[in-house]
Recover the amino acids of this structure.
């Protein structure tokens, strides 16, 4: 397949390389000028998009996605598919999909989970919004870049699924960390706490698969001094997207709002943006009641 790939950062570069290694012809563009060797380099986003059957974008946010879409949609071949894998706000995803449809193009929003490790290993999970025909076109590419692609419905639903999942994750991680910090102060051993909670009704992915206590549970960023993993700054980005969507949809999300405020403080006032999001545990453990 002839593929254009725009946004070749930490995630985009390895995803594009996996597509090229699988035999696809990939033309790449990034404003930073960084194009991996396995790709042919385009001089602009429009040039990367022109003549491609699928154009993949992996960009920082919705405003940049909208700007890139305005540039590439007129350059794309009728019937081609714009596959946006960035994490962006639901409204931008839906606006870009509507513009693509008007131009006679397919569009999918397909944010990922799995991080840079999953991008390199080709084991990402894609949460996909958009129509069935576009999903069928992109399916072989999902198989190369990932291990699972879930079609969540119409345009924007991939982003909706991603931010709802990550809102649960942010909230449960905070709850797990504050419970560990309370257990410490009550003299309860962390291993005993894990042994009980991981097999009781307080269990969650945060406790069982990604335990924030070093040396307890399966290996996790806690065992590497909280090097990410999933950086607190990225968690904050996703939580803010969830609150923006909740406001637009008039949904009541008090726990999501509390998690957003706490990660905001952690990242912006306490300078922990580049730490793993599970570093909330040493943060709580180091604090008493104000
Ligand atoms: P990144 O900052 O490393 O990469 C983004 C790239 O986009 C950069 O190389 C930048 O130069 C390029 N770019 C910016 N504006 C551009 C433009 N107008 N035209 C072309 N290129 C442009 O970020 P990343 O970690 O690769 O993340 C990309 C997306 O994936 C984000 O939306 C992020 O939220 C999401 N995501 C990241 C992770 C992760 O662990 N890093 C996990 C899941 C989802």
């Amino acid at each position: 397949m002839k593929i254009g790939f725009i946004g070749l950062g930490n995630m985009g570069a390895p995803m594009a390389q996996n597509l090229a290694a699988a035999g696809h012809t990939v033309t790449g563009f990034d404003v930073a000028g960084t194009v991996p060797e396995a790709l042919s380099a385009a001089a602009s986003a429009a040039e990367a998009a022109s003549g491609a059957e699928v154009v993949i974008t992996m960009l920082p946010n919705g405003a940049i996605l909208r700007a890139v879409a305005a540039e590439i949609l007129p350059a794309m071949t009728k019937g081609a598919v714009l596959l946006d894998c960035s994490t962006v706000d639901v409204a931008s995803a839906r606006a870009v999909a509507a513009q693509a449809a008007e131009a006679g193009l397919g569009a999918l929003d397909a944010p990922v989970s799995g991080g840079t490790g999953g991008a390199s290993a080709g084991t990402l999970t894609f949460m996909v919004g958009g129509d069935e025909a576009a999903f069928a076109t992109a399916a072989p590419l999902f198989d190369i870049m990932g291990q699972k692609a879930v079609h969540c419905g119409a345009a924007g639903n991939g982003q909706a699924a991603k931010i709802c999942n990550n809102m649960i994750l942010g909230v449960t991680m905070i709850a797990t960390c504050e419970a560990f910090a309370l257990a410490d102060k009550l003299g309860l051993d962390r291993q005993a706490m894990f042994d009980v909670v991981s097999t009781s009704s307080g269990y969650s992915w945060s406790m069982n698969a990604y335990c924030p206590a070093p040396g307890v549970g399966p290996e996790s960023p806690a065992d590497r001094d909280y090097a990410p993993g999933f950086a607190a700054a990225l968690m904050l980005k996703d939580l803010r997207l969830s609150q923006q969507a909740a406001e637009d949809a008039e949904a009541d999300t008090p726990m999501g709002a509390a998690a957003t405020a706490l990660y905001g403080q952690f990242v912006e006032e306490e300078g922990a943006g580049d730490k793993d999001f599970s570093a909330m545990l040493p943060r709580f453990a180091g604090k008493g009641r104000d």
Q: What stands out?
A: The chain has a mean pLDDT of 97. The longest helix spans residues 157-185. The first strand starts at residue 2 and ends at 6. DSSP finds twelve helices and nine strands in the chain.
